[in-house]
């Protein structure tokens, strides 16, 4: 199975079920009271991080996910069933972006972590909710709201403590194999590593026995000059470096290590300047191919970069114990690192629906704007504040729900806002596709 670390999908949460407009009917009871039940909530789309998946490839072939709708409410106060949530299992390290806004909507870094990426619609309230001292038999109910729809880009960024960074043939795969229990394919040609490979490195005690301390090491495919611009395979895998707590620059002592390190850092800077702020060290590899004087000369030249330089030979094992111990000593604390590198995830502005059969009073409207359209007649357009959404939820019963909506909008401050804007008795008010006549209660009472 091919490695895949980017995938575009479409998700659609379920719609909320409509509330029921029903009246109790029974033998010997000609006119029973309203008993319409509430609609169920629509199912949501949820990302869930699991272990044992090394690629997004398992999702290929299914690019669209749809959650079921909530069921309609029924008479006798029967609540409609909620739609089941749909879970999409992804590898740990998956980040989800909203394709339209570009915002991060999920960042899953722990096994079992879940995040709703498309929230199901709310169920509508049945007519039993809308009774009052003056409204004994409401002939309207509330419709459910639509579920959220999104185009989502999934990106897999490997969760590894340490990342090996270097050009092809620098010996990264050999170094990974020598330090850890991984067995990567090794050959002497560019881009041997086509997929990131993870290994586990144990800390050894004085007797060479593994201690209770370890880190994960990722061999990230070789970078070529221009990788940050999409050349070669580099851009496809640069994102994996951002997850690591420590970088090891692997340089071949027989080539131009000073020049290559400068080029590597230039590529990282072009992709993400913060990568150069990560804790880093240099592993000067293949020292078995040159004499000690040349190795020391190169070490002195690399010292100008301000990073620790450790000469090693992955082939013969020279310098590996010192490299392993240096990493353990320099590796930042995982919890502190996570706090300082947390992604800015889009906040979920949709509040949880109150408990079944218990509904809060509608809050005052926020962010409403009222503008005059300049039409021949006096027309006032209302935008924001949730008024259009509220009307839509009663669109099937607008005539019967007019009194309720009028009182609701008055409580939410719409009438006062219209009056402040200059509306007068008889003016037309537009909310979405609906038109109403403005009624000034104070003016009518004074007349």
Automatic annotation (TrEMBL):
Protein location: Cytoplasm
Every Obg domain range: 1-159
Residues reported in the UniProt entry to bind Mg(2+): 173, 193
Gene Ontology CC, one term: cytoplasm
Gene3D superfamilies tied to this protein: GTP-binding protein OBG, C-terminal domain, GTP1/OBG domain, P-loop containing nucleotide triphosphate hydrolases
GO biological process: ribosome biogenesis
InterPro entries linked to this entry: G_OBG, GTP-bd, GTP-bd_Obg/CgtA, GTP-bd_prot_GTP1/OBG_C_sf, GTP1-OBG_CS, GTP1_OBG_dom, GTP1_OBG_dom_sf, OBG_GTPase
CDD domains: Obg
Keyword Metal-binding: yes
Keyword terms of this UniProt record: Cytoplasm, GTP-binding, Hydrolase, Magnesium, Metal-binding, Nucleotide-binding
PROSITE patterns: G_OBG, GTP1_OBG, OBG, OCT
Limits of the OBG-type G domain: 160-332
A Pfam match: GTP1_OBG
Cofactor(s) needed by this chain: Mg(2+)
Molecular-function annotations in GO: GTP binding; GTPase activity; magnesium ion binding
Major subcellular location class: cytoplasm
UniProt domain OCT: residue ranges: 360-440
Binding site for GTP: 166-173, 191-195, 219-222, 285-288, 313-315
UniProt EC number: 3.6.5.-
UniProt key word Transcription regulation: no
Subunit structure: Monomer.
NCBIfam families per UniProt: Obg_CgtA, Obg_CgtA_exten, PRK12296.1, PRK12297.1, PRK12299.1
Protein family membership: Belongs to the TRAFAC class OBG-HflX-like GTPase superfamily. OBG GTPase family.
Function (record text): An essential GTPase which binds GTP, GDP and possibly (p)ppGpp with moderate affinity, with high nucleotide exchange rates and a fairly low GTP hydrolysis rate. Plays a role in control of the cell cycle, stress response, ribosome biogenesis and in those bacteria that undergo differentiation, in morphogenesis control.
Protein name: GTPase Obg
Native organism: Deinococcus ficus
Classification of source organism: Bacteria, Thermotogati, Deinococcota, Deinococci, Deinococcales
